[in-house]
Amino acid sequence: MQKEEIIKIVNRALVKEFELDESLLTPEADFVSLGLDSLDAVDMVITLEQAFKVDIRNNYKVGDFGSLGGLYDFIEKLIKQKNNV
Amino acid sequence: MLKEYDSVVIGGGISGLTSALLLAQRGKKTAILEAGATISPIMNGFSRKGVHFETGFHYASSLGEGDFGHYIFNKLGLDLEPFPLLQDGYDEIHILPTGRVFKMAYGKQNLANNLHEAFPEEKKAITAYLDRVENTLSKSFFLNMHKKQDSLYSAAIDSPPSLQEVLDEYFKSPELKAILSVSAFLHGTPPSKISFGQHCRISGSLYKSAWGIKGGGLAINKAYKNSLERNGADIFVNAKAVKIEYKDGKKHIFTDKGGLFVCNTCISTVHPKIFLNIAPKNVYREGYKARINELEETPGFFTLYAILKDGKYFKKSNMFVVSDTNINGIFSPDMKTRSYYINFSNSKPQALSIISLVPPSEQMWDKKAPEYNIKKEKYAEILKKDIASLFPEIADSIEEYLEVSTPATTRRFAGYYSGYGLMHDVNKTKILPITKIPGLYISGRSIIAPGLLGAIITALLVDKIISKST
Ligand SMILES: Cc1cc2nc3c(=O)[nH]c(=O)nc-3n(C[C@H](O)[C@H](O)[C@H](O)COP(=O)(O)OP(=O)(O)OC[C@H]3O[C@@H](n4cnc5c(N)ncnc54)[C@H](O)[C@@H]3O)c2cc1C
């Protein structure tokens, strides 16, 4: 999956499921400034796992991503890992 | 009539009672609002002809000295006396298609021995599997609460793999897989959907030891009532919360009888879908509400109660009977694939409860549903016929069948909706105890785990979150 496609899917989920304003979704944006709290974080992880069919919960370590750009990279990494197995 | 409290707990089931106790123990002025006529109505059971029948509690794990449950009863000031179930067969599993009868023993080595003997060709896998269960339990946040954890929230989300995936990875024999997953009956989520971790905590913990509690559900309610009184919590029964409002940082809770309770901290322990109806509109994002509404309900229970003849007594705890080795099938909506659980009381005369699962699609939640009465008769007949043909020794010992309960009657008499609350489906949204409204929390069997201990554990987690934020 191309990076652009990952970005599109993540952003679409954030707009649709978390009612965020699309114009705020830049790679630098961090989750706190987007108004996402720990409830959203957990919900987002499960929503994105379903969208990408990857296991984020067991692979995530604190500090793996703080910004949206970090999240795109993280998902890209998981998809690559999955395809290599 | 306005009453002010530090904390108000909506729902006086085990989850709510435990939350209220923890708050009161920390000196908070606390009230419990329970819609029913007594606290935790599901635990009351009922008596007929001098015999007591349990409705909400039969057995649990982790109640031995040094175990989590034992520790927590002490901490909560619950004066309860657990007694061990039969070590060499706390559950007796009957696999109808093959005729195999397997006795679940507790104590890891005992269980391993029984399993090795029954499935010698899978000996190595059995040992490895039991190690994995033990390892998973030793790492469980919930059963090791005193240990430090990185994040409370990460403890609340369970993760893949599912139980079915792990069983498929280790074993070949469908019978063996059935034996190790039939206890899905104890949480109501099929093996393909429950996470392996969650299944271990609820059912795998019984591999260590299995316990009853002297006096059963009534004793549990009494112990809670006593401790709550000692700690100064106020219990309001016949008090159904109908609306929660959020005003000036305070939660205003309205009851059906015109009561108004105002508090800083409010914990709802009612079914999450009911909570969505009474909570303020902005309690969650709309997308999250939709995901909660999509969560599946666990099956309800259809139970046939019987009393044994004078002098007849079976030295057994529980039997599981399944007509299919695919345990996922026991959650399917008809009695063609049959599965039921039989509990033998430790009273004399002995009481039998024969409990089968009824998925929501069967529409047994409402007495006015189409064919409700026909189904009720039919299910009872099917179960009675089964007992007569498969277990003649039991059938011959039965003095009489007393009555049946359905999901609708359980709901009416115990305010108890659906068997174990919402399914804990590893691939679906998890409901966390927090909401978008500061000081408003959600707890109960649908949140972390069902069962006596599940409800207690959920309350403990919620309490940790609350005490961190205040
Ligand atoms: C047949 C059966 C057998 C079981 N066997 C076992 C067993 O052997 N071992 C075990 O560990 N567990 C067992 N369980 C499960 C266990 O009983 C429950 O999981 C546990 O009691 C759940 O407690 P809770 O507080 O989360 O839910 P509940 O008991 O459902 O508590 C919610 C309470 O809220 C009240 N309520 C609802 N709406 C409102 C409102 N609007 N306002 C105020 N109050 C409201 C309800 O009346 C109810 O009392 C069994 C359950 C059943 C039904």
Q: What this model shows, in words?
A:
The complex is a heterodimer of chains A (85) and B (470). Chain A has 85 residues and is an all-alpha fold. Chain A is built from three helices and no strands. The model of chain A has no long low-confidence stretch (mean pLDDT 87). By secondary structure, chain B is an alpha/beta fold. Chain B folds into three domains: 200 residues, FAD/NAD(P)-binding domain, CATH 3.50.50.60; 88 residues, no CATH class; 116 residues. In chain B, α1 packs parallel to α9, α1 packs parallel to α15 and α3 runs antiparallel to α4. The two termini of chain B are 28 Å apart. The mean pLDDT of chain B is 93. The chains are: A mainly alpha (85), B alpha/beta (470). At the A-B interface, α1 and α2 of A face α11 of B. The complex binds flavin-adenine dinucleotide. Flavin-adenine dinucleotide binds next to α1 and α15 of chain B. Flavin-adenine dinucleotide (FAD) binds next to α1 and α15 of chain B.
- Give the integer mean of the pLDDT values of chain B: 93
Largest sheet of chain B: 7 strands, mixed
Q: What is the β-strand count of chain A? A: 0
Q: What is the first-to-last residue Cα distance of chain A?
A: 15 Å
As residue ranges, the low-confidence spans of chain B are none
Q: What is the count of structural domains of chain B?
A: 3
SS field, number of helical segments of chain A: 3
The CATH homology group name of chain A? ACP-like
Indicate the proportion of strand residues of chain B.
15-25%
* Overall 3D shape of chain A: globular
CATH C-level class of chain A: Mainly Alpha
CATH fold type of chain A: Non-ribosomal Peptide Synthetase Peptidyl Carrier Protein, Chain A
Number of strands of chain B: 19
Identify the CATH architecture of the largest domain in chain B. 3-Layer(bba) Sandwich
Strand-and-helix sequence of chain A, N→C? Answer: HHH
- By secondary-structure content and strand pairing, the structural class of chain B works out as alpha/beta
